Amino acid sequence: MSAFSTREVNPLDLILDTKNPRFIIPKEYATEKDIIKYLLNEENIEELCKGLNAVGTILPGERIVICDEDNKQVVLEGNRRICCCKLLLDRKLIPEGYKIPIITKETFENIKKISVDVVATRKIAMKYLAARHISGVDKWSTLAKMNYVNREFEVGRSVSEIREMSSLTNASINSFLRKGNLLRIGIENGKWSESEKEILALDKLKPDPYFRVLGVKGTRDLQIRYDDKFIPHSDYIVDKDLYDILTILVKGAFIDKAYNTRTDYFSEKVQNLIMPILGKYKISDYESVDNSNVTKESKNDENVTSSEPNPLSVQNGNEEHSSGASYKNDHSQGNEQGEKTHHDEVVKPSKNLPLFATLLCRVDNTKQEYRGLISICDEIVRFSTHQGSKNFPISAVLLTRCLIENTFVCYAKKFGKWDQLVKDARGPEKVKLGKIISCFVGNKNKIFDDATVRDHFEDLFGNKFGPVNKMNWVVHQLEAYKMPITELQNIIDEGLLKVIQYMIDQL
């Protein structure tokens, strides 16, 4: 039996989809009336109605897709067109203040009954729709993708099922689930005025300032973790207070617009907002790391402290926690006296390890081709444990990019890709990082045995407009772009550290 069928329906009998990923509306307000108003405000429905009425019918081509849910005919694809039909057929549905043309006789006859495709279940439709809107020509926004992932998870889909339906990677899905709950709780926990509800319902919501501010001193101290349902909790405060803090940050990001990409995210503004709640808890300042792995000179620096990872990067109980690993650099194994150097010391695990503080470089220091990698690993670990990123964010980006390039060159040589790259570039000095990345992308299934690492690599390097490419902007277009240190921390926490560590371990 086919999963698809065709049906003749009156558009007025169809229900606009309150679960549509594009409609970022708090659940308690998500009625069809809300969706109609949202579409009028954000999707240019007035003009679409004019065009449909002028043509006299729904244009042929893409079909309306519906499914039967709870004895209702729900529109899964074509909500904008069905909304137009509804407003043209029943003027009582038009909210006050909007101009919808009077329907012509021809249009009325053509749209009072329309042909739609009926799918057996939403799950079947979502597999097609997700492929179309996530990677196809009519792409959803990042916020819509996040909403889609969270809705599918809520109805019982596993991460692997969502991946199969959407073609998203596990890493992206996990990130969307964590971020989705942080945003959802912050919104749903608040008591908003009608005008504020309108702001929070917009598909044009730009969540980056909200997520970035979660990396500011004070919020970072909360050490947010996630349970197996990706619900955030804190090791330091009760859930109610955590959710109140998220609501405060939502208000600051979207209602008051206190944060934007040009704001100093490390200012005292955020701390002042949340300290009334945190005041009743004993939350210490950043803990100093055990600096036994650095020189005596650096030990004398009283300001050697560490910062905590962005709470968005903390994984659930089924994944590795990056800050829980110890650091041991083995590339000093050639010490002839058998004495311990600072590279052989172990940093005790800390909750507060930023950037690449946990990076391990266990490569053979007798091999000349690894000397550059050893040097950059040593320097970036020291830079991380000294909290250099706080004072020198540009240097943090440049060191990170240098680490990527040195690691990739060594990895290309290890897996026999270097000679061809040199030949194509007509000299080793002319081999660009972009060419190495392209080579790895085209051969990722062969050179990355670990599926999780492969997913992280694809997320970071598979798109020329991806997050790692922004580092090139810092190198070549610093006058136009300066990467916030929180963004770099997010990139590292959400896969870059794992990819780099995996590649170094394979050398």
Kindly describe this structure.
- With 507 residues, the chain is an alpha/beta fold.
- It folds into three domains: 4-120, Conserved hypothetical protein from pyrococcus furiosus pfu- 392566-001, ParB domain, CATH 3.90.1530; 185-278, no CATH class; 296-506, no CATH class.
- Helix content is 48%, strand content 6%.
- It has a five-stranded mixed beta sheet. Strands 6-7 form a two-stranded antiparallel ribbon.
- A hairpin with a 5-residue loop joins strand 6 and strand 7 (232-234).
- Helix 16 (393-414) packs across helix 18 (433-442).
- It is globular.
- Mean pLDDT is 75; it is low at 284-352.
How are the elements arranged and paired?
Blueprint lengths: L3 E6 L4 E2 L16 H11 L2 H11 L9 E5 L2 E6 L1 H11 L15 H7 L2 E6 L2 H14 L6 H13 L4 H8 L3 H19 L5 H7 L7 H6 L10 E3 L5 E3 L4 H17 L12 H11 L17 H4 L71 H15 L2 H4 L1 H22 L3 H8 L7 H10 L1 H4 L3 H11 L8 H7 L8 H22 L1
Parallel strand pairs: 2-4, 3-5
Antiparallel strand pairs: 1-5, 3-4, 6-7
